[in-house]
C-alpha cells in the first residue's frame, strides 16, 4: 500500500517526507477554507454552498493526510459518493433542521458532577481532556463543544476532573476523550494518564482518539514511550471505512500495539459512508489484520445537523446479520444505540428465533424453539423450563 505522502496532491509536491511525517506540519497545513480546499479537490456547487453556510456553525479542518484519501474528482452535477469527503466536507444536509434533533443528544452536560466529566454509569466516567481535533468530522455528535475555542478544557478543569475521580471510589474505568485528547502535548496527556494510573481504584484506563485515522503522524516513538509507562491502556479509535486504513494508519496501529495498547474500534454507522454490509466486512477484516478489534458499531444519534447521515435501525441489524458467518466473532462489533436523554448504551441484535412453542418430552417440560442461522437454515432446540420455579 502506498503512503499518503506518495499519493499527495500536486500542491504539496515540494514537501519533503520529514515535513509530511511531522504532525505539527500536518496540523499547521490543515485545509480550512474553500480556497485551500479547491487547490486540492474539485468542489461541486452544492459543496461550495454548504461550505459557505455551515462552516460558521462547525469549523472545517482537514489534515493534508486525510485530504489525500479523498477522491480528487467530483461530479459537479451529482451527489458526492466519496466516503472520505462525506466525513470531511460540509454537506447541504447540515443546514436542514428537524424538531427531533438535540443539541446534547446524550445529555452529557446534565450528568456532569464537575465540568469535563460525564458520570452516567456507577463504575465508569467520560473525561474530556480537549475539545479540539485535527479534523472536524461532519458527523460529530459533540458539535456543540468540539472546535469551539471557548470550551477548551483548561488546566484547572483537568485538575478538578482528576480530583473528582480520586475522591469517587466507585469509578473503576476512565475513558479519556474529547474532542481528541491527542491534541494535547505528550507531556500534558502523560500527566493525565499517569495521574489516573496513580489512583488505586482506577483499574481500567481508556483513551478515545481518531488520530490514527486523521493524523497518524501523531503516533510518534516518543508518544508511544509515554504510553508504555501506563500500560495496559485500552485505546479506542474510530475507523469508519476501509480506505481510512492505509499504510500510515497501519503503521500507527503497529506502534500502538508495540507500546502495549489494546486496540478497539468504534465505528459510526453513516449513510453513504459505510451503510452496506460489504464495506463493514472489509473494514473489520482489515482492523483484525492490524490487531484492532471492532468494539462498537454505533447508531448515528439525534444530534443537530447530522440527520442526513442517519440510517434506519434495520440497516445496522442487517449488517450484523451479514457479518455472522463471514467473519469470526472477534470481527463482529456490538451494534449500539446511545439513548437520547442519557439513557446509556443498549445493543441491538438480530432475532434468530423464528418460532417457539411449549412442549413436553418424556415428562420434561420446556419450549421447542426454532432458530434460523446465518445461512437461513432452521434448527430445533429444546429449552428447559426453569426447574427451580
Ligand atoms: C459510552 C460511554 C461510556 C463507556 O461505555 P462502554 O459501554 O463501557 O464502552 C461511559 N460513559 C459514558 C457517558 C458513555 O457515553
Ligand atoms: S474526532 Fe471525534 S470528537 Fe473530533 S470531530 Fe471527529 S467525531 Fe468529533
Automatic annotation (TrEMBL):
It comes from the Bacteria. Gene3D superfamilies: 6.10.140.1170, Aldolase class I (3.20.20.70). This is Lysine 2,3-aminomutase. The modification N6-(pyridoxal phosphate)lysine is found at residue 345. The keyword Iron applies. PROSITE patterns: RADICAL_SAM. Its cofactor is pyridoxal 5'-phosphate. Signal peptide: none annotated. PANTHER family: L-LYSINE 2,3-AMINOMUTASE, LYSINE 2,3-AMINOMUTASE-RELATED. Keywords: 4Fe-4S, Iron, Iron-sulfur, Isomerase, Metal-binding, Pyridoxal phosphate, S-adenosyl-L-methionine. The keyword Iron-sulfur applies. Pfam families: LAM_C, Radical_SAM. [4Fe-4S] cluster binds at residues 133, 137, 140. One of its GO terms (molecular function) is metal ion binding.
Amino acid at each position: 500500500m502506498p503512503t499518503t505522502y506518495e499519493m499527495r496532491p500536486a500542491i504539496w509536491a515540494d514537501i519533503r517526507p520529514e515535513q509530511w511525517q511531522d504532525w505539527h506540519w500536518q496540523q499547521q497545513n490543515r485545509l480550512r477554507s474553500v480556497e485551500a480546499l479547491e487547490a486540492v479537490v474539485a468542489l461541486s456547487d452544492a459543496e461550495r454552498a454548504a461550505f459557505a453556510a455551515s462552516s460558521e456553525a462547525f469549523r472545517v479542518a482537514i489534515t493534508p493526510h486525510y485530504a489525500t484519501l479523498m477522491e480528487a474528482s467530483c461530479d459537479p452535477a451529482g451527489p458526492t459518493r466519496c466516503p472520505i469527503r462525506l466525513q470531511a466536507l460540509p454537506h447541504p444536509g447540515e443546514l436542514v433542521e428537524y424538531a427531533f434533533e438535540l443539541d446534547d443528544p446524550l445529555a452529557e452536560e446534565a450528568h456532569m458532577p464537575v465540568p469535563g466529566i460525564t458520570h452516567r454509569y456507577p463504575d465508569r466516567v467520560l473525561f474530556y481532556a480537549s475539545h479540539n481535533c485535527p479534523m472536524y468530522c461532519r458527523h460529530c455528535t459533540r458539535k456543540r463543544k468540539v472546535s469551539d475555542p471557548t470550551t477548551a478544557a483548561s488546566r484547572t478543569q483537568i485538575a478538578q476532573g482528576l480530583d473528582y475521580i480520586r475522591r469517587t471510589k466507585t469509578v473503576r474505568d476512565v475513558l479519556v476523550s474529547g474532542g481528541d485528547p491527542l491534541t494535547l502535548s505528550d507531556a500534558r496527556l502523560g500527566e493525565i494518564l499517569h495521574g489516573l494510573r496513580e489512583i488505586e481504584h482506577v483499574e481500567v484506563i481508556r483513551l478515545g482518539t481518531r488520530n490514527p485515522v486523521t493524523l497518524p503522524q501523531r503516533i510518534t516513538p516518543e508518544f508511544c514511550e509515554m504510553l508504555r509507562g501506563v500500560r495496559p491502556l485500552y485505546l479506542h479509535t474510530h475507523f469508519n471505512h476501509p480506505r481510512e486504513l492505509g499504510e500510515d494508519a497501519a503503521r500507527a496501529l503497529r506502534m500502538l500495539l508495540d507500546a502495549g495498547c489494546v486496540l478497539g474500534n468504534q465505528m459510526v454507522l453513516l449513510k453513504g459512508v459505510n451503510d452496506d454490509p460489504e464495506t463493514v466486512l472489509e473494514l473489520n477484516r482489515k482492523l483484525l489484520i492490524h490487531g484492532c478489534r471492532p468494539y462498537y458499531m454505533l447508531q448515528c444519534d439525534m444530534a443537530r445537523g447530522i440527520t442526513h447521515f442517519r440510517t434506519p435501525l434495520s440497516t445496522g441489524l442487517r449488517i450484523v446479520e451479514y457479518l455472522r458467518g463471514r467473519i469470526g466473532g472477534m470481527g463482529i462489533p456490538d451494534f449500539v444505540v446511545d439513548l437520547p436523554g442519557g439513557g446509556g448504551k443498549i445493543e441491538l441484535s438480530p432475532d434468530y428465533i423464528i418460532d417457539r412453542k411449549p412442549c413436553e418430552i418424556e415428562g420434561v417440560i420446556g419450549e421447542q424453539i426454532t432458530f434460523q442461522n446465518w445461512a437461513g437454515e432452521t434448527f430445533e432446540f429444546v429449552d428447559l423450563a426453569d426447574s427451580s420455579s
